[in-house]
Design the sequence.
């Protein structure tokens, strides 16, 4: 038996050099003949994906509807096949904008409702924030509506360590569940317990408009949220002009610890936020000017804007990303090396953007810890593709969600109507690839080979495993096996008989890490 262990240095020269960006492993259009939009997704411990979306369709992948727009939740297996798809709502209009796992299992889906029937048991006014707790099969455990007599909306959601949930959004009301309003739309943060009861709520704002689009629980038990503001009075001090990025740090009981207003004389806002390993924060949004806190904008049109803050909200650095057309940032993930991966949308074909397929594309950017681009790529078709959220997957890759009108280039399976929900699964981050040969006792035999080979590996525990064959340029030729594998030894055939003679790489991806072996076909 002869096999070659591929070190990190060799991997960087061979596979990672050619495959400098993650590759699309699979993509899926979800929808029917009307408007269907994807907003958020998670991956559960079994490797399945659960999608939060809104739908107006009554055909295609949409199996039922109550009337008007619906909250739509789709569960897919690790390869994107639908396990179940369910709609939730009443005779009014509903939408699904975010989703998280519950600590005790199942999911919480966040959206809005204007109904008072069907799946909706209470209603305060024109439109309410709607939280729907589901079990693993999509059955409703409980649902709650929150708001006042006017329209409330929310898209920020996170599970908390005590089994509850934090929600961020906005409201113009001063009745119902709300106790104060400074004028116009105020930012609104709600804390729910594990059964959906409102523990506390807090409105923050001025006489203009305050919107909170994202929230995360912080390591001190409080929260960090971001959005935008147009005020310069009330709770808001320091507006630079027009729309500014708003960053809000609250305690565990909802008291303001600090707030930061960041921007220039144009339009700035925050769409995503995460805590960094040093206790600070990274905020992602957009900026369209080149003054105030903003520098490096490419053309006085919107750029994706990345802002690094310390634990007390002081600005450490900021970077603009994009080209001479419209670019934005919508979702961010921290990476194991202290860097960041963010998703946005782009119309540009220059500057930091390598190319697009036409119109608006998904745009994925990987940076180091100080915001320098390590790689970037676009995804989409010839029409409009609107990016919403990205997650790290358990195999070390990424999954992105948004909406598409396309049916060419990277997109296939479009159902028609105005938009489809579009999910893209990408391979492992090439900057995070590791050699795990000693960990999983991997061997390939025979090597070199005249035909088929076998790969053997041992798992210490059950894990999500994917086995791939790549050519010497890093291009994915085929995926041999993908799914949850039990602990213990495994033997898998590698079908090389029909491949031309030459060298290939076999990649074994286990729980976000990758080991690569070189094999020779003679």
Sequence:
């Amino acid at each position: 038996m002869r096999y070659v262990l591929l070190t990190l240095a060799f991997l960087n020269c061979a596979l990672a050099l050619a495959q400098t960006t993650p590759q699309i492993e699979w993509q899926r259009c979800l929808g029917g003949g009307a408007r269907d939009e994807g907003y958020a997704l998670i991956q559960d411990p079994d490797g399945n994906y659960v999608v939060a979306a809104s739908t107006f369709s009554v055909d295609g992948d949409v199996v039922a509807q109550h009337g008007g727009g619906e909250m739509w939740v789709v569960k897919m297996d690790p390869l994107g096949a639908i396990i179940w798809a369910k709609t939730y709502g009443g005779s009014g209009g509903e939408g699904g904008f975010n989703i998280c796992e519950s600590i005790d299992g199942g999911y919480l889906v966040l959206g809005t409702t204007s109904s008072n029937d069907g799946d909706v048991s209470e209603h305060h006014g024109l439109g309410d924030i709607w939280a729907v707790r589901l079990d693993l099969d999509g059955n409703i455990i409980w649902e709650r509506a929150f708001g006042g007599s006017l329209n409330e909306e929310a898209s920020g959601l996170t599970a908390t360590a005590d089994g509850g949930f934090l929600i961020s959004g906005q409201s113009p009301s001063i009745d119902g569940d709300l106790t104060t309003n400074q004028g116009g739309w105020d930012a609104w943060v709600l804390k729910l317990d594990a059964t959906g009861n409102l523990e506390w709520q807090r409105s923050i704002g001025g006489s203009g408009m305050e919107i909170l689009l994202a929230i995360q629980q912080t390591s001190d038990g409080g929260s960090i949220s971001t959005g935008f503001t147009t005020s310069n009075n009330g709770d808001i001090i320091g507006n630079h002009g027009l729309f500014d990025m708003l960053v809000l740090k609250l305690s565990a009981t909802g008291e303001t610890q600090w707030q930061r207003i960041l921007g220039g004389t144009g339009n700035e806002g925050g769409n995503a936020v995460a805590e960094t390993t040093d206790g600070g924060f990274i905020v992602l949004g957009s900026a369209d000017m080149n003054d105030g806190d903003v520098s490096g904008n490419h053309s006085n049109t919107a750029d994706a804007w990345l802002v690094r803050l310390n634990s007390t909200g002081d600005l450490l650095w900021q970077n603009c990303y994009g080209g001479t057309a419209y670019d934005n940032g919508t979702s961010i993930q921290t990476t194991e090396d202290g860097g960041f991966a963010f998703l946005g949308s782009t119309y540009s074909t220059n500057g930091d953007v390598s190319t697009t397929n036409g119109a608006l594309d998904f745009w994925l950017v990987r940076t180091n810890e100080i915001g320098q681009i390590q790689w970037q790529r676009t995804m989409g078709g010839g029409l409009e593709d609107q990016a919403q959220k990205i997650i790290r997957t358990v195999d070390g890759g990424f999954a992105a969600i948004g909406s598409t009108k396309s049916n060419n280039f990277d997109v296939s399976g479009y159902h028609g109507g105005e938009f489809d929900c579009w999910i893209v699964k990408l391979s492992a981050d090439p900057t995070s690839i590791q050699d795990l040969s000693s960990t999983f006792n991997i061997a390939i035999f025979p090597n070199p080979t005249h035909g088929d080979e076998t790969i053997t590996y041992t798992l210490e525990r059950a894990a999500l495993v994917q086995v791939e064959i790549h050519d010497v340029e890093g291009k994915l030729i085929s995926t041999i096996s993908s799914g949850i594998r039990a602990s213990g030894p495994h033997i898998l055939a590698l079908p090389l008989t029909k491949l031309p003679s030459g060298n290939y790489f076999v990649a074994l991806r286990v729980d976000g890490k990758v080991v690569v072996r070189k094999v020779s076909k003679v």
Observations:
- The chain has three helices and 36 strands.
- The radius of gyration is 24 Å.
